[in-house]
Amino acid sequence: MKPTDYKFIMLSAMYENGGNTTHRLLDGHPELFVYPFESQPGSKFVNDYLSSMYPLKYRWPIFPGSATVEEIYELIIDEEGKVRAKTPYVSKFRTADFQMSDKDRKADFVAFLQGKELSRANIMEAFFRSSFTAWKNYKTTGQEKGWVGYSPIIGVDGDKIINDYKGAGHVLHVVRNPFSAYADTKKRAVPLSIAHYMTGWVMCQYYSLIYAEKFPDHYHIVKYDDMILDKVGVLTKVLGKMGIGGSDTLAYPSWNGEELTEVYPWGTVRIPTEEINLATAQELNAAEIKEIYERTKTYLDIFGFQDFYKKLI
Questions:
Q1: Which end of the chain is more exposed for a tag (fewer CB within 10 A), N or C?
Q2: pLDDT tens digits, residue range 164-196?
Q3: What is the CATH number of the domain that holds 89?
Q4: What pTM did the predictor assign?
């Protein structure tokens, strides 16, 4: 495990904005180690003006200086990964053939950090590297040169990620029209209200636009609505900006290289197509469409979603 060859890509997206879909499209890429679930790197020590809006597990973590390496590992929330590794029978991914002991990963994590500064960059590098050294049935290609994580809304911490890695880190933020996104959100067991959801959606885009302008070589925005029209073309273009080549595998979602017929249970979006994207938005009633428009219209103009909106009215 060489600390000098680390290229890190963190995916970001508001809930139901296509983050999981993008994550699964990248999965089979021969040049990428793609984390198997949502990475959820946050810790309980994150405490700022966004803490009441977004779950701490989705944020870029903070670690106390007094913590030992072993304690730091346990502070990384990583809910989906740790639940699947420790108690697979209660995980929504229990049928996935995932052979990894959390004990082994912790040992590799500790070993990687031996003698190194406990900086956040080193800690997160150790977490992602150890996830793949401990994953016994991971299908490696031998061509990998980048590590990919995915945590919803983490783009709000994009400046921290980019500054931590000093040129070796990238954020890829995915934005979907808010109508389809909210229609999918409504399918959750306990959906957020329009007011709650749209506040979070707008804030995600607000920070992403700021960081894309401030760090144009490291903060990248793609539209889900464009990606589903040309998955290989859109993703190849943005990956090229990160020094990663194209691949035919970008055309379909997969898990550990095995093609998936639908993205579920990795995300609420089951089948990423233009037709389903529009049909999903059309499930909303007129009052919902009107309220979503009123709360997001500035960003509909910025991202070019006005034509999509016109199809709904």
A1: C
A2: 998 899 999 999 999 999 999 999 889 999 999
A3: 3.40.50
A4: 0.95
Kindly state whether residue 33 falls inside one of the protein's structural domains. yes
3-state secondary structure string across the chain = CCHHHCCEEEEEECCCCCHHHHHHHHHCCCCEEECCCCCCCCCCCCCCCCCCCCCHHHCCCCCCCCCCHHHHHHHCCCHHHHHHHHCHHHCCCCCCCCCECHHHHHHHHHHHHCCCCCCHHHHHHHHHHHHHHCECCCCCCCCCCEEEEECCCHHHHHHHHHHHHCCCEEEEEEECCHHHHHHHHCCCCCCCCHHHHHHHHHHHHHHHHHHHHHCCCCEEEEEHHHHCCCHHHHHHHHHHCCCCCCCHHHHCCEECCEECCCCCCCCCCCCCCHHHHHHHHCCCCHHHHHHHHHHHHHHHHHHCCHHHHHCCC
Q: For the chain, report the end-to-end CA distance as a whole number of angstroms.
A: 55
Residue 184 lies in a domain: yes
Number of domains observed in the structure of the chain: 1
Q: Is residue 259 part of a domain?
A: no
Q: Is 255 domain-assigned?
A: no
- Cα–Cα nearest to 243, from 220, 267, 275, 266: 220
CA-to-CA dists, residue 33 to 131, 149, 255, 263, angstroms: 10, 9, 12, 18
Separation of alpha carbons 291 and 276, rounded Å: 22
242: which 2 tokens?
Answer: 């990160």
Q: Is the pLDDT assigned to residue 111 strictly greater than 70?
A: yes
Q: Are 10 and 173 in contact (CB under 8 A)?
A: no
CA 5 to chain centroid = 22
* Full domain range(s) for residue 133: 3-245+272-310
**pLDDT tens digit sequence for 23-61:** 999 999 999 999 999 999 999 999 999 999 999 999 999
